[in-house]
What we know:
The chain has one domain: Rossmann fold, CATH 3.40.50. 40% of the residues lie in helices and 9% in strands. The chain has a five-stranded mixed beta sheet. The longest helix is centred in the middle third of the chain and has 29 residues. 48% of the residues are buried. One of its GO terms (biological process) is lipid catabolic process. Keywords: Hydrolase, Lipid degradation, Lipid metabolism, Signal. One of its GO terms (molecular function) is hydrolase activity, acting on ester bonds.
Amino acid sequence: MVVTPINGRGPTTTAFLLCILMLENRVCAAASAVYVMGDSLVDVGNNNYLPLSIIKADFPHNGIDFPTGKPNGRFSNGQNAADFLAKKIGLPTSPPYLSLIGGATPPLSGVNFASGGAGILNETGGLLFKEAISLAQQLDYFTMVHDKLILELGPSGAQVHLSTSLFTIIIGSNDLFAYFNLGSIVAKQYTQQQYVDRMVSNFEGLLKTLYGLGARKLVVTGVGAIGCCPIQRKVNRTGECNVEINYWATKYNDGLKMMLQGLKSESTGLNYAYFDTYGAMVNLFQNHETYGFTEIKEACCGRGNLNADVACIPLATYCPNRRNHVFWDLYHPTEAVASLFSDILYNGTQELMVPMNIEELLRV
């Protein structure tokens, strides 16, 4: 069947409008769109447009296993979680917000606001990398998209669109890195507990704003075992994990889970899927050979101790087999790990996905 474009927007818009008409009969089970917020784990190119940022991935050897074989702003040898989740849901990868030149109308399939180095707290990106799009700024950008959706679909159409869209938020690691960084300013201002409480409180306020703008299906991930990434391991002569930063990652995650439960109980129609990234990473380290990984400590791309003395820059060397490495560079997972964790996010059990996975979230 040939689908006639409506207002020049093509088949995607037509399918969406048909979906609105049929929602009462529960015909539409898929997400209308995927809106992505977060840090470098799901950045698909926003940092390419930040002139002051010192964390970018628009150069080799990043993207070596991407379909184009070229660097594209992803901090990975290939695709990242944003790509894999969109594919599972049946939508194209949401484009980076900053690529929508001249206020172009955002696609109805979603937009990606994520930025390498971003944090929940406004100061995090500046402290670590001079420039990043904080979560609050990402939310401001989404507000602009929200207003354009209302203009295009009308208030009721935009409401249906947003209530059936996924809002994926992967963030928090950089805030902890900023605290435990050598010479940290914020470590002099707050105790560890005060700091993680501040992270949770700020996140809660931003999620409430997002809910007020129409978001009803949230995908939120906890902070992983970030003390086990190569840049943290290299500090120990034995290459073991940084126990302290891992401990506070778990304390933050505990507060995040409680906050999400409370937010759901007071927010009509809100549902969420929480991914225990920390538990998934620990399981991967303990059972890496089961999943086909043989190297869990050393970065694939870099130089020096654990390939973590130098970032993945053009002068760095990289491993010939990216599939058997957990880490691509000194911070980020390989495409293989992103794919594995995306599988868990989509249809994993309650051991790592609470209170439901994405597949179940799409049906509520």
